[in-house]
């Protein structure tokens, strides 16, 4: 089990994260970014799984302690819409990466839905990040130029997703290819949220496949 840690404070707000340790003090780190529901128990569980796999993992809380019930998509959309993505990336995600020892220690970033957007922004904006694994979330054009991704990127996307759509994935892949960025893009016959065991769209077979691909990617890019 992990624990709550402080990452810093800005304007009277204390930034926190859920931190899961591993026994290896020299282990690489992974920053895990929440879905639009906030840092739910499911996201904490992802950190715990990474710790069990030999990584230090932290889920920085971008909602300052607020979580949204899974049935309330409207509230989740509103909370995500109020988030300043660049500021959250530059302050909270950077602080989480530094907490894990970056840039001296290799550190990756991964995220789901909202967290997918942030995992790509971090791959563009943060010098502390060595690799990124994105799950069904892509920054819109107003937030980032996808050609500016500067680290290896692996992406997992759902063919039936109406939010992070197949055409958006095609555009991401085209941008990465045109810029000569190292990348792997995987598409699954599933719906948005297929890796969240608490979601109606959960597909354990495909979630397991994506997880194994992610672990292989981290092994290649964080342990070499």
Properties at a glance:
Rossmann fold, eight-stranded mixed beta sheet, 8 strands, globular, single chain, alpha/beta, 36% helix, 6 helices, 224 residues
Can you describe this structure?
This protein is of the alpha/beta class. The chain has a single domain, classed as Rossmann fold, CATH 3.40.50. The protein is built from 6 helices and 8 strands; from the N terminus they run E-E-E-H-E-H-H-E-H-E-E-H-E-H. It has helices at residues 41-52, 73-81, 85-99, 114-125, 166-178, 204-222, and strands spanning 3-10, 13-20, 29-33, 56-60, 107-112, 131-135, 153-158, 183-188. It has an 8-stranded mixed beta sheet, sandwiched between helices. Helix 3 (85-99) packs across helix 4. The radius of gyration is 16 Å and the shape is globular. The two termini are 27 Å apart.
List the helices and strands and how they pair.
Layout: E1 3-10, E2 13-20, E3 29-33, H1 41-52, E4 56-60, H2 73-81, H3 85-99, E5 107-112, H4 114-125, E6 131-135, E7 153-158, H5 166-178, E8 183-188, H6 204-222
Oligomer: single chain
Q: Going across the major beta sheet, what is the strand order?
A: 1-2-4-3-5-6-7-8
The tally of helices reads 6
Number of domains: 1
Q: Strand tally, please?
A: 8
How would you sum up the major sheet?
Answer: 8 strands, mixed
